[in-house]
Structures are given as structure tokens and as C-alpha cells.
Design goal:
The complex is a heterodimer of chains A (about 250) and B (about 250). In chain A, strands 7, 8, 9, 10, 11 and 12 form a six-stranded antiparallel β-sheet that branches. In chain A, about 20% of the residues lie in helices and about 30% in strands. Chain A has about 250 residues and is of the alpha+beta class. In chain A, strand 5 and strand 6 form a beta hairpin. In chain A, helix 4 runs antiparallel to helix 5. By secondary structure, chain B is α+β, with helices and mostly antiparallel strands. In chain B, about 35% of the residues lie in helices and about 30% in strands. Chain B has seven helices and nine strands, in the order E-E-E-E-H-E-H-E-E-H-E-E-H-H-H-H. In chain B, the strands form two sheets. In chain B, strands 1-2-3-5-4 form a five-stranded mixed β-sheet. The radius of gyration of chain B is 18 Å and the shape is globular. Classes of the chains: A alpha+beta (about 250), B alpha+beta (about 250). The interface between A and B is large, with 34 and 40 residues.
């Protein structure tokens, strides 16, 4: 990521105009934590680090929090609450407004062949509609191709672990070890963890599903993730944590 | 009893809340939790904005009319700085638990009955703002608050920033003022007898405490004694507290 400036901002502070990127072709894109007050004021709304990307002509405020606010295109892990005639109602964060997941928003689903999901089951879904005046809407299928692209109901033995939203974003980075500084999963599956066999599904809403045939592995992986998040561990500390957990749980 | 200690704060003290803060200043210790935006109950729902719910719990006993009064004052001023229009039909819940309040050395008070007064308002307000920042609730601006008491002693007037309970009791008037980070007056509550001129003086004193940035403060401290500068520079405190929290959160960057 082409970022150079590390500037701390509080809500309502003025951003120095020299920090706002300009680009010949792309319009300026504002990410989370910023609001535009017409005509030309850009004001932060949360406390965090202002990050600008001159290549994409975008800027946003990086911060960590616990309450997930849906935004379109996010991949999340939702739990089915109940089913109505046309859609499932899903919980994406505790006490938040439930999201709707249409019965037909699954791969190759028709009126007759649609997945039967019981209350409590998990789905890995994309937020297809996030509008502050409406409840969020989810989908488990790519609407243009009709393919699932890895989304859908989660089956198999496993457990969901809660992490902070910042940590979930780091897990979802394409190169999470280099850019996000999270190497626990690689280590657990690799040499340090003795090659544990497990699979994960991380959602932007701060939930990570860990699946494995052995309950021991699920607990080790889940605890490693939560402790890395809570303790703010670096790569070297993560390696030590993984070794300790594997040894303790033998 | 002169409790002019520097303010202290810890953020994220409650693991399950979306945001939390523990704040201690002038003998008061307050813990706040913030949850939100969450789904509002049907009767609290507003079609265009979030409902801000403030709950004040005293150190002992259950809250009564006094607490409801403080809640309503806090609610109306916090709803001004939170971007409530971003989250229609939802609820932002702020719970403030008073853990400790300074005792009045001159009166034998038994801590069985909730007994809150105006002097606690700045602590409650500041804790709420810190917890909101810790939860990442979008806000228009940050805010700082202070309490100022005016007392007449032997014919001379005295202005006391962050008064102790004894000073509140003997004071002619007590004022609570809060300012946003744009130096706008957000909250002004007064109790007792005072003239317009006196209120103007109080306003000057409070805005000095609330609105001074760190640089100015240092400049003054060099010339005058700390006591004359009147209280801590609240805005600088808020900024440095949040800066260290964000630095800890983003250590991986």
C-alpha cells in the first residue's frame, strides 16, 4: 500500500489540505471514518490514523473497534436466526439489527431446491445491500455469474471465535503476514504448530470460524487467534505463543 | 481537601462492551461502557436518527431523580456531538457507573444513599466522551468539560476549578461547562446565585481549562505557577489518551 503519512486524528479536527491526495483522472474516494461536508471540508469522525493512498486517490481513517457496521461488499460470517417465507433472518453482530438473506441467494437455488438451514447454522456471505435506512441484505452467490465463489452454508465440525474488527481485517488481507503482521495460522499449519490440519473462515464482522476433525486443534487455533488479537502480538511473539499452546495442549 | 490531581484514563477496560473507559479526576472515579449502534426497542426508535440512551449509576444505592436529571443533561449534550443521523432507528447506549466520589470531610456522610451533585458532571461527561471514542462511534467533534465554583470569602471572590464537595457546599454558585473541539459552548448548567458578570468570568476560566491546546498551556506554565493556570489542559489530555490507544491498536502497521 502506498502510504507515507502517519497522522493521528480526532473527530472534528481539520485535515491539512496538503495531506489530501489529488489525482488527474480518479475522483477522490473517502473510506471509513471520514465525512464530507459540502462544499469542500473533509472531517474525520473517529479517532484513528489518517491514511492516504495517492495512487488510488483515496483516504481513510484506520482504527480498531468491536461493533460491526455493515457496508456493501464485505464478506461476513452470519448466523441464521430464523426463516420466513422468502428469506432467512441472520445475526451479524449481537444486538444489531438482523440482516436478511433471501432463500434464492444461494448457488443454483430454485424455489424447489433451496438450502434448508436450521436456526443457529452459519453462513459465509457477502453484504449485498447496506443502507442506513434499511436492514442489511446478504447473498451467498455472485449475482453476475451465479457461482458461489466460496460463499455458502458452513458445514463440518468447528467453532466460531470472536475477534476485534481490526484483527479480522488483517486476517482477510491478501498478504496477511506481510501487510497485516498475522502469521499464526501459517505457523499453526506449518513447522511451529507441528502441521495441524484445520480450515478457517474469517468474516469482517469480527467472527472467525475454525473447523477441524479434532476438537483439540479447534481450541488451539481459536485461542491462538484470540490471544494474538488481545495481546497485540508481533510475528516473533506469535511464534512463541504457537509453540507454547501446542506444547500445553498435547 | 484539595484534590487537584491530574486526570487519568484507561480505555477498553470492559472486554465485552463495544467501547469502555475508566476515568479518574478530582477524587471521582467513573467507568463507562458504550454499546452501539444496536437495535433499538420499538418505543425508542426514531425514523431519522439514533436514540442516545444515558444511564447513570451511583456508587451506592439505586439512582433517583438526581440521576435522571444528570442523565437528561448528558443525553442532550452527547446527542449533539454524536452523528446520530448516520444510524437511524438504532440505539447508542452509554452506561456510567460512579465508582468513587470524594468525601466531604466536614460532614459525616454515610454512603448508603445516592448523593450526586453538579461537581460530578465533568467526570461523567469526560468518561462518556472517552468511551464513545473508544467504541469508534462516529462523532462531529470531541468535547471537554469542567466544573467551576464561585465562593465569597471575607468579601473577596474566589474561582475554584474542579471544586471539592466541601467547596461545592460553601460556594455561592456552581457551574458546569463543556466545550466542543471547535471551541463552541456545548453545555452550561449553573446552580446558585450569580450575576451575569460572574458568569462571564466563569466562562473565561472554563474555556481556558477546556480549550487550551498543549502548546499554549506550556507557555503559560512557564510564566505562572501551575495553580494559577487553573486546572489541567483537558483537550491535551484527551488527545494524548486517544493517541496512545490508537498507537497500541495499530502496532502492526
Amino acid at each position: 500500500m502506498a502510504t507515507n503519512e502517519r497522522l493521528f486524528v480526532l473527530p472534528g479536527e481539520t485535515i491539512d489540505p496538503s495531506l489530501i491526495p489529488t489525482h488527474k483522472k480518479h475522483p477522490l474516494r473517502l473510506g471509513p471514518g471520514l465525512r464530507h461536508i459540502p462544499p469542500s471540508d473533509i472531517v474525520p469522525t473517529v479517532a484513528g490514523q489518517l491514511i492516504t493512498n495517492p495512487l488510488k486517490n483515496s483516504m481513510w481513517v484506520e482504527y480498531n473497534s468491536h461493533r460491526y457496521i455493515p457496508s456493501q461488499g464485505d464478506i461476513i460470517l452470519a448466523q441464521i436466526l430464523r426463516s420466513t417465507t422468502d428469506f432467512y433472518l441472520c445475526s451479524i453482530a449481537p444486538y444489531s439489527a438482523p440482516a436478511t438473506l433471501p432463500h434464492l441467494a444461494f448457488e443454483s437455488a430454485t424455489k424447489k431446491t433451496r438450502p434448508q438451514l436450521a436456526p443457529g447454522s452459519l453462513v459465509y456471505a457477502r453484504v449485498s445491500l447496506a443502507n442506513r435506512h434499511m436492514d442489511p441484505e446478504l447473498e451467498c452467490v455472485n449475482p453476475s455469474t451465479g457461482k458461489a465463489d466460496g460463499l455458502g452454508p458452513i458445514t463440518g465440525n468447528g467453532c466460531v471465535f470472536d475477534v476485534s474488527l481490526g484483527f479480522a481485517r488483517r486476517l482477510l488481507m491478501a498478504r496477511s503476514r506481510e501487510d497485516g503482521g498475522v502469521g499464526v495460522l501459517e505457523m499453526l499449519g506449518g513447522e511451529e504448530g507441528g502441521g495441524l490440519a484445520f480450515e478457517t473462515a474469517a468474516g469482517r464482522n469480527g467472527k472467525v470460524w475454525v473447523g477441524s476433525e479434532s476438537p483439540r486443534t479447534v481450541v488451539i487455533v481459536g485461542r491462538a487467534l484470540q490471544e494474538t488479537d488481545k495481546g497485540g502480538l508481533g510475528i516473533e511473539e506469535q511464534r512463541r505463543l504457537v509453540k507454547r499452546l501446542v506444547k500445553e495442549m498435547r | 481537601m484539595t484534590a487537584t490531581t491530574a486526570p487519568e484514563a484507561a480505555l477498553g477496560v470492559l472486554p465485552r462492551a463495544d467501547g469502555s473507559a475508566k476515568y479518574s479526576h478530582a477524587g471521582y472515579i467513573v467507568t463507562a461502557s458504550v454499546n452501539g449502534p444496536i437495535e433499538a426497542q420499538r418505543r425508542d426508535e426514531h425514523p431519522y436518527e439514533a436514540h442516545v440512551d444515558v444511564i447513570v449509576r451511583p456508587a451506592a444505592g439505586v439512582g433517583g431523580t438526581r440521576e435522571r436529571h444528570l442523565e437528561s443533561i448528558l443525553q442532550s449534550s452527547l446527542a449533539q456531538i454524536i452523528l446520530v443521523r448516520n444510524f437511524p432507528r438504532s440505539l447508542i447506549q452509554i452506561v456510567l457507573q460512579v465508582e468513587h466520589s470524594p468525601e466531604n470531610d466536614y460532614v459525616n456522610t454515610k454512603l448508603v444513599q445516592a448523593n450526586l451533585n453538579f461537581a460530578i458532571m465533568p467526570a461523567l461527561f469526560q468518561t462518556a466522551v472517552l468511551a464513545l471514542l473508544s467504541a469508534g462511534v462516529p462523532m462531529k467533534a470531541t468535547a471537554t468539560a469542567t466544573a467551576v465554583a464561585l465562593s465569597h470569602q471575607d468579601g473577596s471572590k474566589r474561582t475554584i476549578v474542579d471544586p471539592s464537595p466541601r467547596e461545592v457546599e460553601t460556594a455561592q454558585s456552581v457551574h458546569v461547562l463543556a466545550f466542543t473541539s471547535h471551541d463552541e459552548l456545548l453545555l452550561a448548567e449553573s446552580e446558585g446565585d450569580f450575576t451575569v458578570k460572574e458568569w462571564d468570568d466563569v466562562y473565561e476560566t472554563a474555556s481556558k481549562v477546556c480549550c487550551q491546546s498543549a502548546l499554549q498551556k506550556e507557555g503559560i506554565a512557564m510564566v505562572l505557577d501551575d495553580e494559577d493556570a487553573g486546572g489541567p489542559a483537558m483537550r491535551h489530555f484527551l488527545r494524548s489518551t486517544m493517541e496512545s490507544k490508537v498507537a497500541a491498536d495499530l502496532h502492526w502497521k
